[in-house]
Amino acid sequence: MQRPVARTLAVLAVSAAVVSVGAAAPPPAAGRGAEKEPVAVGHGGAVSSVDADASAVGIEVLRKGGNAVDAAVATAAALGVTEPYSAGIGGGGYFVHYDAKSRTVRTIDGRETAPRTADENLFTEDGKAIPFAEAVSSGLSVGTPGTPATWQAALDRWGSRSLGTLLKPAERLARDGFTVDETFRSQTASNEARFRYFPDTAELFLPGGELPVVGSTFKNPDLARTYAELARKGVGTLYRGGLAEDIVDTVNKPPVDPDSGYEARPGDLSAKDLATYRVEHQAPTKTSYRGLDVYSMAPSSSGGTTVGQALNMLERTDLSKASEAQYLHRFIEASRIAFADRGRWVGDPAFEDVPTKELLSQRYADARECLIKDDAVLTSPVAPGDPRHPGRCSTGGTPAPTTYEGDSTTHLTVADKWGNVVSYTLTIEQTGGSGITVPGRGFLLNNELTDFSFTPANPAVHDPNLPGPGKRPRSSMSPTIVLDKHDRPVVALGSPGGATIITTVLQTLTGFLDRGLPLVDAIAAPRASQRNAATTELEPGLWNSPLKGELEAVGHVFKENPEIGATVGVQRLPNGKWLAAAETVRRGGGSAMVVRPER
């Protein structure tokens, strides 16, 4: 692949400084203070996640001969211990897999589903939307978890180890504990008030009634026992056994502290909802970009269609030669337009007629790209177009605002020595999910159903993201794998961040593929996020930069966001080497590891 020469972008430089890739040491045992490094290069495979203990678990699986899928499942289980506010067996996600033997990409949709009794009025009372804060911390917000089923489905199709074997490291990590860092403490603090509504949550995450202390050891023996049960009985116990019964009881009768005065709305999840849950095996989205093929998640996620459409619009501009301001202007405007179409057209394809092929067509991208002007800014909300009947520079519908999505999600990326790759985003939605812990089980339940539109985003037009029986809420998760013309991996990455996932992945990809930034620098670069809103969000690195004034002169309006996304990824290098890269600062920094580091 021909890539532009790397250049220095002063405004995109990160003060986190220069990272050495030659001094990485083999990771210590999980739970024993594994060090975080944002980049590593070497042989034997690679793992990148937000957490050092979790990455170390994945590396150990690779070192013992497991493949990328095995390592991804083990790493995800460990993240359920160390990142319990972002992911766990009470949630769901999207799994993208590259098979090196067949050189093909396939995906698993493990998104949570609404109860069979749900309808479009799930989050309304007396014709009005329930307050969001009340919906979040309730049984009403909990969908049937998809994460355990995703793990088993991935292992059945591509794995080489049993789920029981792969859960053992996470079980030990939960039993023996991990070291509390500032991110874990601050996330607990931001949830402290609502955690106290639920005695089981407070007992687990506020030990002794207090916030966990940085540097202390946090243990979760209930989760260790739950993992042991899953290892012994299989994931069926979560969908048809005793664990399923506990989940249903908790959702339908949320265990609230009677002295708190909080009234948690009950859900209506049934044993049948869990017993009939199935993951969806489906083809990925595919977008050709600069001679490469970009693969990601098809609906129910909007990640693949929205990132892909924006890339198609950006391909008409040589971003490698654009100035920094021109690049960001084009990136922002393409994001704005793609989000306009996302809001109108994308939902669960089992319920909605989603024009996935048309949204990803170059013909439609060209019809929409011509709305972008070099000397002016589109006014949001931009109206959607009609991908089935594209007219040049035309808009074919009523604009609708982008609905809120919680930003507490996590992503991991794995490659093995055979060249297989996994890009996996998993979540419980809000930071801390619903706030409800299943008593005696050690994990939080998701609040994923709040990703549905509570009421139509615009009453004048059909909203494809209203709730329905067994329906999957629309997601922005964008686990991505890029292949070259020989169908070999170039890079794989993803991010948490709610709807900002899409813009984060898009900006990281263009920074790496177009702007010539090393992967770790493309990840660390200060971000912008435009989601068809009146204002574009900027991280401090751009907010405090001269670029802000240049873009404002064109017509952009900004507001500051202290942190957008938290990307991790892997890059294939020559001669069987891999580079793993993660955040240098965001969320406390990420953890990139390889099996045999290059000295």
From TrEMBL:
InterPro entries: GGT_bact, GGT_lsub, GGT_peptidase, GGT_ssub_C, Ntn_hydrolases_N. Cleaved by autocatalysis into a large and a small subunit. Keywords: Acyltransferase, Glutathione biosynthesis, Hydrolase, Signal, Transferase, Zymogen. GO terms for biological process: glutathione biosynthetic process; glutathione catabolic process. Residues 381-400, 457-478 are annotated as: Disordered. The active site is at T409. This is Glutathione hydrolase proenzyme.
